[in-house]
Specification:
Layout lengths: L1 E3 L3 H12 L5 E4 L11 E4 L1 H8 L3 H6 L6 E5 L5 E5 L10 E4 L1 H12 L4 E4 L3 E6 L4 E5 L4 E4 L2 E3 L6 H7 L6 E14 L8 E7 L2 E7 L3 E9 L11 H12 L6 H7 L7 E8 L5 E2 L2 E3 L2 H4 L8 H18 L4 H31 L4 H12 L6
Parallel strand pairs: 1-2, 1-11, 2-7, 4-13, 11-18
Antiparallel strand pairs: 3-6, 4-5, 8-9, 9-10, 12-15, 12-16, 13-14, 14-15, 17-18
């Protein structure tokens, strides 16, 4: 079995394939695990799956303290809060640094899986009994099944279904994120958001680091080079220079190296997540968007559901893939719809009317995560 991608979806998929008795190879185009990014929310079915994997206690041991999420105005007055530091949620829920969860999952597969970093799939040809894969280094190998777990810009999806843009649902905005050492801009275990029509600035504070985030709306997609970091910084400054609240300090704090995330806010919506002997898992098949705050969890859920389907239909990958998709799709579409309808309006209201409506909900306590 071949798994393309060594993030949450790929590592979780490899874990379950190992458990089902398959020999597994993971390829990852990066030279090592892709580190960085914001913490991951773990709750509900994700906890159940991690428990079956024997990893839930390791996640709990690395869980971050509960956090308060505050909405601010230009004078730094609090418009309203979601939760409060030290509050206990009504259900089991954890937040864990992305790198900690990555290490936990990697540790669960590293000794049982062939890991090939610095490679990707160049060609994919399906035969009667196997998929013939040519790697980017020229090596050619056959695999019984192939799983594309390689993210929003999935190479596997492109090779299998064609131009990935046909499956991209643009949500009308862009997002920038940089993780920096603790800045003193806010206390640990607190998140703050400041919004004006069409723009949003966000801070997440932890004991040893701060997430600096900016989001903005656009009428259409921007023509930019995703490899040009100078251009991306310029796009942020064009929209946020001169804005109040803590924005000047945030812009200064995020300057320097090019280790940051910038991309459009989008979802991946596909009519099918599989073809022949190849199936997609996580963002590659059903990215729900960064605003949903659920990408890591849905990758683990997807891998768990896929494993259950393969176990239910041993030797019949077509039936297993149908069962996987039929069972998971309604849940994915619900999360995607919630992110599309509520996420943008809450974090980055489009205009004065949408901002006023959001602030009214915040003041009434009629908003949550």
């Amino acid at each position: 079995m071949l798994v393309s991608g060594a993030s949450f979806a790929g590592l979780a998929t490899a874990y379950w394939l190992n458990r089902l008795g398959h020999r597994v190879t993971i390829i990852e185009v990066a030279k090592g695990l892709r580190r960085g990014g914001t913490p991951v929310d773990i709750e509900g079915e994700t906890i159940e799956i991690l428990t079956r994997m024997g990893l839930a206690d390791a996640v709990r041991a690395k869980a971050l303290p509960p956090r308060c999420f505050a909405f601010k105005d230009a004078d730094d007055r609090t418009l309203g809060r979601v939760g409060a530091a030290g509050d206990q949620a009504s259900h089991e829920r954890y937040e864990i640094h992305r790198d900690d969860l990555l290490d936990i999952l990697f540790g669960a597969v590293a000794d049982e899986t062939e890991l090939l970093f610095g490679r990707s799939i160049d060609r994919l040809e399906e035969g009667t009994d196997a998929v013939s894969i040519t790697f980017t280094d020229g090596e050619r190998r056959d695999f019984a099944l192939v799983f594309g777990c390689d993210g929003n810009r999935s190479n596997t999806r492109k090779l299998l279904f064609g131009d990935g843009e046909q499956f991209t649902h643009f949500m009308g905005g862009y997002f920038f994120l940089k993780v920096v050492p603790q800045t003193g801009l806010l206390a640990a275990n607190v998140s703050e958001v400041f919004s004006v029509p069409g723009r949003m600035a966000m801070l997440n504070g932890y004991d040893d680091r701060t997430d600096i985030g900016f989001g903005f709306r656009t009428d259409g997609e921007i023509d930019y080079d995703y490899r040009d970091r100078v251009q991306q910084r310029r796009l942020i400054h064009e929209r946020f220079d001169g804005l109040g609240w803590k924005v000047p300090a945030m812009l200064a704090g995020s300057a320097g190296d090019d280790d940051f995330y910038f991309d459009r806010i989008n979802q991946i919506r596909m009519p099918s997540w599989s073809r022949g002997r190849v199936a997609l898992v996580g963002d590659a098949g059903y990215c729900v968007s960064p605003l949903a705050g659920f990408g890591g969890s849905i990758a683990i859920i997807g891998a768990g559901r896929l494993a259950a389907a393969l176990e239910r239909y041993p030797g019949d990958h077509a039936a297993a893939f149908r069962h996987y998709e039929d069972g998971l799709r309604p849940f994915v579409e619900e999360v995607q719809e919630r992110a599309a309808s509520d996420g943008m309006a809450m974090m980055c209201p489009a205009d004065d009317g949408e901002l006023a409506e959001r602030d009214q909900k915040i003041a009434a306590g009629d908003i949550g995560f």
